[in-house]
Amino acid sequence: MGDGPLIRDVSEAYPGTLHQQGGTVNDASCLNRTAVYGVVRPHQEEDVRTALAHARDHGLVVSVAGTGHSMGGQASHPGALVLDMRGLDHVRVDQDARTVTVQAGATWHQVLEAVHPMGLSVATMPSIDVLSVGGTVSVNAHGLDFRAGSLSSTIRSLRVMLADGVVHQVSREQEPELFHAVVGGYGLLGVILDVELDLVDSEVYRLDSRVIDTHDFPEVFSADVADDPAVRMTYTHLSTSPSTLLDEAIVYTYTRLEAAEPVPQLQARSSDRFGRLVLNLARTGDLGQGIKWSAQRDLLPHVRGCTQSRNEALRQAEACLVGRNQAMFESLGLLSNRLTQYTDILHEYFLPPDQLVPFLADLREQLGAHHAQLLNASIRSVHASDITLDYAQGERFSLVLYLSQDVSEAGNADMAHLTRELVAAALRRGGTFYLPYQQHYTREQVAQAYPELDEFFALKRRHDPGLLFQNSFFTRFG
Ligand SMILES: Cc1cc2nc3c(=O)[nH]c(=O)nc-3n(C[C@H](O)[C@H](O)[C@H](O)COP(=O)(O)OP(=O)(O)OC[C@H]3O[C@@H](n4cnc5c(N)ncnc54)[C@H](O)[C@@H]3O)c2cc1C
Questions:
Q1: Which pLDDT does position 284 carry in this prediction?
Q2: Which of 109, 164, 268, 431 has the fewest CB atoms within 10 Å, i.e. is most exposed?
Q3: ipTM for the complex?
Q4: Contact at 8 Å (CB) between 359 and 352?
Q5: Residues 454-473 pLDDT 10s
Q6: DSSP states along 388-447
Q7: What are the pocket residues of ligand 1 if the criterion is a CB atom closer than 6 Å to any ligand atom?
């Protein structure tokens, strides 16, 4: 049994098998070890209902978890019965309707594997495929497809089980208020059981990369990316090398090919080990950072897992062809850190386009004043969405930071201070910040970034009057 003061030993009475009895759970930050009542892994809908009933009958709270990649305790609560949704992972494709219905615990990897043989692809997804569909719908994730924007725009409907065990099918037409709160609702309204998503054609792209001065990014993005309808996906890496820190960038674009290319089978990625080596080099200091950036800029394109058709390769020796699904078939390999003295923490800020470059100046200044080390920085583009906790509220460039901190009190304090400074800077510039990561911000800052915060929590209380669903986000800000 767990060691927290809130833990009561009622697990003997659990009407089924607990995947884990007592003990603790943690998340991707490795900094949120939380003692829980236990973990149940439902394999059918009825198991979810049983778990909720057991929690209600025994005065327990419930936290819902996908693959545990949030970084601030969003999928746990002290003493909670944790629903590990990974046992609910069926994927059903409707080729005629061009939709896929995915149980919440399935990963995007499983979705890509299911749709690819049918010549179809997801309309958008996060940029790594190991995350669960339920967990990413619950944060309204986004990725490389800047035209689609965030996941919410690609959801036709979803089914959610509320605290009383009743299942609601919700969409923009059916119970829209609930739909808009569940998407991006951090598991506080109910348990998402499955989600019906739009599919699009699988395509073959030409992947190009181009090194630019970061100050030119807004113009380059507008002229060469957004205004070119053939460009379907994009991301940009910023330099983390001391000599060009945040001043130099590599813009990657995926351009749809005019000539129909046969879409090849999905292949496992091959360059993870090299990428991880390069990233770990960056932890060693300025020299390592310089080598890492040179490798990203000059070497990585040559070891990238491209699918290059023979004819195209003959025509265009430098071209790198990649299928849409292959581009998104990206595991965590590159990012998984096996060094236990450090942990890697993500931040993400959403800036009005004209505020990105000024915010980078704020960032450079703050990095100089803190110990946390910037391992990776990238830019994506998102649009406003109609969900209650919308992070974009307009056309935004999103800046994703991948930072390394020491696993120590001092490391935590440094990261907390850095986060607060960057959140304040983003808000000053009319920007916002993403909520799945560490929560070193104040309630006022969350309310400023998310103007419908109070409505969101009021709706939660209406649908969950017993406050069955709890996590760190609700404890801190609810
Ligand atoms: C290395 C890394 C890369 C990332 N890349 C991206 C990216 O490219 N784009 C992006 O937008 N985000 C990205 N993220 C953030 C990521 O999308 C979120 O952390 C997401 O929540 C992870 O999904 P998960 O399955 O791990 O969810 P968890 O961390 O397990 O849960 C997250 C939240 O969802 C809730 N939840 C989970 N399942 C359900 C369910 N079935 N019903 C109701 N609520 C549920 C939980 O209660 C919790 O509040 C990344 C994170 C990491 C660590």
A1: 79
A2: 268
A3: 0.99
A4: no
A5: 999 999 999 999 999 999 99
A6: TT-S-SSSEEEEEEEEEEESSHHHHHHHHHHHHHHHHHHHHTT-EE-SSS---S-HHHHH
A7: 28, 63-70, 74-75, 85, 104, 126-128, 131-132, 134-136, 138-139, 141-143, 186-187, 191-192, 332, 335, 346, 436, 471
